[in-house]
Amino acid sequence: MRSRKLIAIAMAPFLLLxxxxxxxxxxxxxxxxxxxxxxxxxxxxxxxxxxxxxxxxKGDTILAVGTSEDVKIPVEAEVINAFxxxxxxxxxxxxxxxxxxxxxxxxxxxxPEVRVLDSIDVxxxxxxxxxxxxxxxxxxxxxxxHLLSGQTIYLKLRKGNIVDDLTIKLSDGSLAxxxxxANGTNSIRDSGPFPGTRGKxxxxxxxxxxxxxxxxxxxxxHQEEKPEEAFERDLALETLxxxxxxxxxxxxxTHRHDDILTVLRLKEEFGFKVVLHxxxxxxxxxxxxxxxxxxxxxxxxDSPGGKLEARxxxxxxxxxxxxxxxxxxxxxxxxxxxxxxxxxxxxxxxRAGMSRQKxxxxxxxxxxxxxxxxxxxxxxxxxxxxxxxxxxGDPFSIYTRVLETHIEGEKVFDLENPTDRLFAEGGYxxxxxxxxxxxxxxx
Amino acid sequence: MFKVILxxxxxxxxxxxxxxxxxxxxxxxxxxxxxxNGIVLCGENGKIRAVGPASKIKIPAGYQTLTAxxxxxxxxxxxxxxxxxxxxxxxxxDQEQLEKSAPIQPELRAVHTGHAPGALMSGQLxxxxxxxxxxxxxxxxxxPTSAVASTLGSKALSNSPGTRxxxxxxxxxxxxxxxxxxxxxxxxxxxxxKDAPAPNLRLDILxxxxxxxxxxxxxxxxHQDIAAALRLQEEFGFNLVLDGAAExxxxxxxxxxxxxxxxxxxxxxxxxxxxxxxxxxxAAKLHKADIPFAFQSGYETYVPKTRVVHFEAAxxxxxxxxxxVALAACTIQPAEILGLDxxxxxxxxxxxxDLALFDGDPLETTTHTTHVxxxxxxxxxxxx
Lengths: 443, 384
Fold this sequence. Notes:
The structure holds two protein chains of two kinds.
Chain A (H helix, E strand, L loop, with lengths): L6 E2 L3 H5 L5 H10 L2 E9 L7 E9 L2 E7 L10 E4 L4 E4 L1 E6 L28 H8 L2 E6 L7 E4 L1 E4 L11 E2 L9 E4 L15 H28 L9 H10 L5 E5 L2 H14 L3 E5 L7 H7 L3 E3 L18 H6 L5 E3 L11 H10 L4 H8 L1 H6 L17 E4 L10 E6 L2 E5 L3 H8 L18
Parallel strand pairs in A: 2-5, 2-6, 7-8, 12-13, 13-14, 14-15, 15-16
Antiparallel strand pairs in A: 1-11, 2-3, 3-4, 6-17, 8-10, 9-12, 17-18, 18-19
Chain B lengths: L1 H11 L5 E8 L9 E8 L5 E6 L10 E10 L47 E7 L15 E9 L12 H27 L10 H10 L5 E5 L2 H14 L3 E5 L7 H7 L3 E3 L17 H7 L4 E2 L14 H10 L4 H6 L3 H6 L17 E4 L10 E6 L2 E4 L4
Parallel strand pairs in B: 1-4, 6-7, 7-8, 8-9, 9-10
Antiparallel strand pairs in B: 1-2, 2-3, 4-11, 5-6, 11-12, 12-13
Helix pairs in contact in B: 2-3, 2-4
């Protein structure tokens, strides 16, 4: 896995300043607040649960996590007694449609040039609700009504004015995102240019990637032979070439076991990085998924419905995949499941045989791995970003409430705040007359 | 010899001779608090023979005994489309939850169609137990016509009614037709010279509504729609049950004064459209205001079609509703709203032996359902 050092956009000014004002930087350094959360039950996720633990945060970063004996609290630290409370890493939703996200239109089934980035409304209350659910990072994507509906965007749910305040910058300066693909009935339509069968769906996708292979070859040749000259870019093929080079991950909606195998064949043929999403029938082909070493982002539904291809959906998917060593994460698919119920996924997983550890990983670290962000988020470890959630009790209990959500050291949700509470519980004004976004909900 | 013993054992657990022993037994009577170490005896007639603490009840010889951490009355879903809306989402094959060929069709029975919110007056509801293999006649139901379903608000609007005002005008006109039909019936009864009006499926059920024989269940989410439902009830004097009622928290005094029960929308319903201002605390607020209420699995488009009623109760318990009240709102409370509290909804001598058994707090997601008993018979024993 390529390691990517992440730089939060919001922090960019602080990172540039030291070169010019090193003395100013020093005094600024000493001003950075240190917060010590003590007496909490802490689940670092990357290591076992800590009773009466201390979480030490400096600015946007975790300084230390451990027992009260292990972690020395600096004198200048502000101490917060979190007795009786539970602290877990910020939750990561690998598949969400919050923020009025939209992608491809009905003009064609494959539209890699479309960025959902250009549609996000950070004022949409679905984002406030996601923070109230403890979600700190989300993969926002377009729906499954296309074979390829566009580029997703990975967002930190910071309090921002525009979407650029929420994006994640990679070390090469580009934004962190993946590509949304789908197969099965959602992307099949009655008339062209959309496919009418599963066979045609796969053929259309394969042809497009074969075109991209030729484009990639041409691009490489151009870079080698005449890098000084402008290269004639094709926006759609460029995205596919990035996938072929392993720069971007495909997030692939798929339900039925034969559709899952089709994705595994595509991965085999074109060598791209892929995460399987929903995977209703994963339990039927869990061995094949494990053999292919492909991570799965799964959904939980209280009762099946909506379409024939999801009929054999089972709660045991989480247990069957995780016990075979498959990296398994949950997602909300908000608005299919409300972001505020995200924690409940872990409890359903445990009910159907998943271990508590794997279930917690499914809400945090496993998702971070799928987004290639596990070197900066997903667990409570020194040096990682201070993304964490404070809970009123056991993460698997229905009676547990999210009390606070912190992103990079900043509190972005506080149940004690009346406005935040409105988004957490609902009530008059919580909707703001906005429509459900994304996906197949209204088709 | 061995064979004989087996036969004897089989005879000994014949129909209905079943005892349930639970660490916590929620009978859903009195103050709703559970009995510690309680026992329920299911008699041969499918009714409850005895209920109480283990210290006072002796399990008769030959009874099959089931043990559980928690036992409670069988769960009652106050508004469901199970059996009507299938999983295919194909209107021609398995979507029987709503007939939209006309805005007002009170003559349609649930045996043939459904009542998902969405039409001004969509048809008749029924109450059925989940141990019925198929409904061949109304005899297979607990109540053949338990209410007539109606919807106010944006879901019930199309070409006509196209506005909320027109919808109410149409409903009032329809109920007035019922009034004049009732008048003709009464005149014929009083005067032998006069002919009784010809039986009319549609007008006859409207008369039942007006005579308070059949309640009108009105799905209304926005506060103005709830207020309109209360106005209708005041004008025509029928038995009203409010359904959904997402913004009921704005009208607690009015609902309380009207003496109307509420079947609350699924706690985890999607907060869009008329539900955009819904709150997970609605059940807790209704409880505090002393308004009778029950939970429902409800109906949604796409996935999931229906929710799971005790999960909906659980989420309300997570948002301020006491645990035992949440359990009551999916047992004895819906039984009362449906007028069936003499038969089901609590564990009392003489009532139907309907029980649900769990390996922990029934409201915790991680808890499994271990047994379901209906009329004294185990209908499910797989741990789910």
